[in-house]
TrEMBL record, chains A, B:
This protein's name: ROK family protein
Parts forming coiled coils: none
Any one Pfam family match given in the protein's UniProt record, by short name: ROK
Alphabetical list of PROSITE patterns matching this protein: ROK
Domain of life: Bacteria
Family note: Belongs to the ROK (NagC/XylR) family.
InterPro entries linked: ATPase_NBD (IPR043129), ROK (IPR000600), ROK_cs (IPR049874)
Amino acid sequence: MLKKVAIGVDIGGTLTKLGIVDREGNLYAHMDFSTTMHKGFGDYLDELKNQIEGLRSQIDFEHEVMGIGVGAPNANYYRGTIEHAANLLWKGIVPFTDELKTRYDLPIYITNDANAAAIGEMIYGNAADMKDFMVITLGTGLGSGIVSNGQLIYGYDSQAGELGHVKIVDNGRLTGLGIRGGLEAYVSSTGIKRTVFYLLSDMMDDSVLRDYSYNELHGEIITKAAEDGDPIAKAAFEMTGKILGEQLANFTAFSHPEAFFLLGGLAKAGKWIFDPTRKHLEENLLPFYKGKVKLLPSGMMKKNAAVLGAAALVWNHLQE
Amino acid sequence: MLKKVAIGVDIGGTLTKLGIVDREGNLYAHMDFSTTMHKGFGDYLDELKNQIEGLRSQIDFEHEVMGIGVGAPNANYYRGTIEHAANLLWKGIVPFTDELKTRYDLPIYITNDANAAAIGEMIYGNAADMKDFMVITLGTGLGSGIVSNGQLIYGYDSQAGELGHVKIVDNGRLTGLGIRGGLEAYVSSTGIKRTVFYLLSDMMDDSVLRDYSYNELHGEIITKAAEDGDPIAKAAFEMTGKILGEQLANFTAFSHPEAFFLLGGLAKAGKWIFDPTRKHLEENLLPFYKGKVKLLPSGMMKKNAAVLGAAALVWNHLQE
């Protein structure tokens, strides 16, 4: 029997990851290649096609490709473009889906990785029965995908769900966009590292974290230190969870989600980030929301979330 | 020819307003009666039916009532209930649409007034061609109705769009919900009055506003003073617009609306509130939103927005 599959493609500044995924979220084959090995965008797409065909030849059952879903920074869902992406070599506005369609006569969809993660959560993650939820991705920055009425919120020009840039404090930390006080400067894998360095400056406690340079320090070291009782690491998680919990309470007043799902590097810290976030979320919820908003780990946490989320774009369209 | 009409009902703590409205937003007859003249909820609904029938007898053309739309505080759209409304006599959870359906075999819908205003804006206001926008109502409090993908965002339990309660500052002004720092304590007809009183305490300038008690002061007096060059009144509008503009910039990162519409008492101040709000909105927008988000007066400003918005619920369902 012909099995229906989708191709999921996740384009990062360094690597392009791709995989073949079925409707149930089974990943049959996957690989990655350098996003930067080709100077021209056309050459990149030729390489992408080579890699897709190579991947298809690896799977040992007859299959039909239903479409290609792509997650990429600065992707415009409506126009199928990648626009002014600082982390990619292609400058200006790249007509991604139009160009890829000259190579594949298939439905092709593109959006940013947090939106793709939210659709993945709905299609084969923990939000299968939910119509209203948000996925918060905590990696280098803070990304978000918002689903309301069972639909992803793209907004007027496909730039909804940029919650990492919500300004939470005047004259706060500088973000990558050159703005002060943006949420992701505090809550992300980078944000908690910055908080550790702030606390190392502020507190006098001994800490194993005093042995790491800023460039050496990463999330797993902070989590390990917290597990060993390190006061700086524990304070950093508490401070990060407090800010995230307070902001999720504010976000609730927007779209009243049934649940927030956390995904990405910082979410892997488990109870260290979930416990303080849940506490401060609940404390700050308006009276009529209390007890009604869940904070949950993403169902994509142990999976190849980026590739699966991208492939989910295809399944989401097929069921509409 | 039988003309199709909808009944719009706006339930306030003091008055219930109702009217007969066609698809184009023409209001053929309207009246109001005391919400509190009947102790029991059943008696109130009997009165409402009397009033609706009285109104229908006033219009001199043959018509078919397509449904009844109701705007009410603490309304739950999904369940058709009014739940724990502090400003109404009916306590607990009132099964509004179910009870009204025993009197009218018609489609009946209920939501809060800001949501009804947003649907009214879409059906016969200034958002007729928009799929993504927000209506901000600036009355006693700050209400909001959010439309994305052409649909009102109700959220998991019908309590989305409570942006008046977003916490904008730690240890700020107390709101009606007993929470400190909520947006509506600063930006609403009440909020600007509180700001005037704060500025009267903070500044030394002469001002006609020094002649009014808190209970005497209202929005039109502040607008008139600003027009006469009063420094306190002008500073109050500037401060209010700054806070609103900054927050609308944050709200943009959620659902990326094409426009924000302002409605309600404070919005009637015109340029005094629109100019500083627009300036601070634009200044605080993320780079990729700049120049792309409009701040507009509601198309319902000079109309009976509450009754028209409630009636619009019926038309919105008929076109779905």
